[in-house]
Amino acid sequence: MKQIMTIFAYTFKDGVRKKSFWISSVIIAVLILALCLVPRILSAFQSEDADSQEAAAPEVQADAETTGTCYFLDESGIFAENIAMFQALAPELKFEVLSPEGGDKTQQMEQIREDIRENENNAAVIIENTGDTPSVKVINATFMQRGMDLDAALEVCSSIWQTKLLADEGLSPDAIAKVQTALTGTEETVGTMDLTGYILGLVLTFVMFFAVYYYGYGVAMSVASEKTSRVMETLIISAKPSRILIGKCLAMGAVGLVQIAGLMVVALAGYTFLVPEGAQIAGLELSFSNLSPETVAVLLLYFILGYAFYAVLNSVCGAAVSKVEDLNSAMMPVSVVALVGFYLGYFTSVAGGGSNLLAKLALYLPVSSPFSVPFRLLTGDIEYSDLGISMGILLISIVIVSLISAKIYSASVMHYGKMLKWKEIAGMK
C-alpha cells in the first residue's frame, strides 16, 4: 500500500502542476459560465422584442398609407369583397384594388412588375380564374424583400373560398363559422424525459467520452514520459510494476475527479447566479428534477469505472513505447475501441437509432456503457435491473482487464528500443 501511495502522490502532483490541467480547467469553466448566460440573454432579447412590438404597433397603423402599395387584382370578384382580411396581413401596405377589365392584361401585369422592381416595398396579389378553383399569385421584389407572404395569402383565400362554397350549398353564416372554427389542443407527455434532462444527458455523454479518453491518455503519457526520461528505472527499484500501474491509474483518476468537482462547483454557481428563475428554452422551462444526489453519485461512479477500464488499457500502450513520439501509434487500437464504444452509446441513446437489442448491447458492453448510461439515467430511460447488470459487467471486465494488463505492463515496462507490436504484447506473460 505504501508503494501505491508513493506512486500516487508523485503522479498526482505532476498532473495538477501541468499547464494543460489549468488551461483546460479555465477554458471549460468559461464555457460553462457562457452557457449559463445564454438563457438570460435570450430572455433579454425576448423582452426587448415584446417591448418594441408594443411600441411599434401604433406607428405601423399611423404609417400604413406611406410604407408601400399592394396591388390587388381579382378576376373572380369574390376575394376583393374581403379586402380587409388581406389588409390585416400587411397593415403597413396600402391595398389598391385593380379592375380586371382595365385593358390588356399582359400589359397591366408588366406595369405591376415594373413598379415593384422600382419600389421594393410594393407587392401584388393576383387571383386568376383557372377552372373550378381560382389560382393565387403573389409578386414581391425579391426573396428577401417580401411585402406579402404567400402562405398567409393562401390561408385567407382558402377561408374566403370555403365560405363561398358552403354558402352556395345553403349553410347559414353561423353554420359556416362553426365549420371553419379552428380546433385547439394540448400535448401531454407521461414519460420522465424533459428538455433539461435531454440537453444535460447529451452534454454529459460527450463530457464522459472526452474525460475518459483524456485522463486515460494521461496515464499512457505519464508512463511513456517516465520511460523516456529514465525515471521509470528509479520507480521500478522502489515499487513493483503492478503497484506502479495501480498508483498511476488512481492518481490520474483523482486528478480527473478534482477537475470535474471544480467544474461542477462553477456550474452550480453559474446556474444559481446567472440563470434567471423560470428560464425557458424553446418554450420549455429548465428543470433539474432528474439530477438528484443519487443520480450524481451514479454518474461519478460510471466516470470512475469507465476511466478505470480504459486507463489500464492505455497504461499498456505507454509501456510498449520507448519514445513519446510513438505513443499515438501504440494507442490507436484502444482509441478505435473507445470511438466504437462512444458511437454505439451515442446512436442507441441520444440519437435513438438501432434496435432494442443494439440498445441493450450498448448498455451492457463495457466499452460503451460509460457513454450510454449517463444519457439514459438523466432521461429516465433505464431500468434498475439494466443498471445493475451494466455495472456488474463493467466491474468484472475491469478486474479481468486489470489482471491481464498488470502482467503485460510488468513484462513490458522496462522494454527499450523498438516499439512493441500488439502481437508481441499479447504474447508476454
Tags for this model:
429 residues; four-stranded mixed beta sheet; transmembrane helix; ABC2_TM; ABC transporter permease; membrane; ABC-type transporter activity
Structural summary, described in words:
It is built from 15 helices and 6 strands. Helices cover 67% and strands 7% of the residues. A 4-stranded mixed sheet has the order 2-1-3-4, with helices on both faces. The chain is elongated and about 105 Å long.
Can you give me a brief rundown of this structure?
Residues 19-406 form the ABC-2 type transporter transmembrane domain. It is a multi-pass membrane protein. This protein has 429 residues and is α/β, with parallel strands linked by helices.
Number of DSSP helices? Answer: 15
- How do the SSEs run, as a string of H and E? HHEHEHEEHHHHHEEHHHHHH
Structure summary, number of beta strands: 6
Backbone shape? elongated
What's the Cα radius of gyration?
34 Å
Distance linking N and C termini: 24 Å
- Placed side by side, the strands forming the largest sheet appear as 2-1-3-4
Low-pLDDT segments: 56-64
Helicity range? 55-70%
- Secondary-structure-based class equals alpha/beta
Q: On the 0-100 scale, what is the average pLDDT?
A: 79
> Sheet bearing the most strands, described?
4 strands, mixed
Indicate the proportion of strand residues.
5-15%
Keywords: Membrane, Transmembrane, Transmembrane helix
InterPro entries: ABC2_TM
GO cellular component, one term: membrane
Protein name: ABC transporter permease
